[in-house]
Amino acid sequence: MPEETVVSMQNNQTSGYPAEGSREMMDAGVFYGRKKSKTNPKMRPFVLANRGGIEIINLQKTEELMDSAAAFIKERVRNNGLVLLVGTEPAAETSVMALAKKLGIPYVTTRWVGGAITNFKIIAKRVEHLKQLRTDLASGALVSKYTKKERLEMEREMRRLEELMGGLELMTKEPDLVIIIDPILHHTALSEANTKKIPVVALANVDADPDKIAYVVPGNDKAKKSIEWFLERVGKAYEEGVKMRTLAAETKAAAEAKVVVVEATTTKAPVEEK
Question: Are strands 32-35 and 83-86 parallel, antiparallel or unpaired?
Answer without folding.
Answer: unpaired
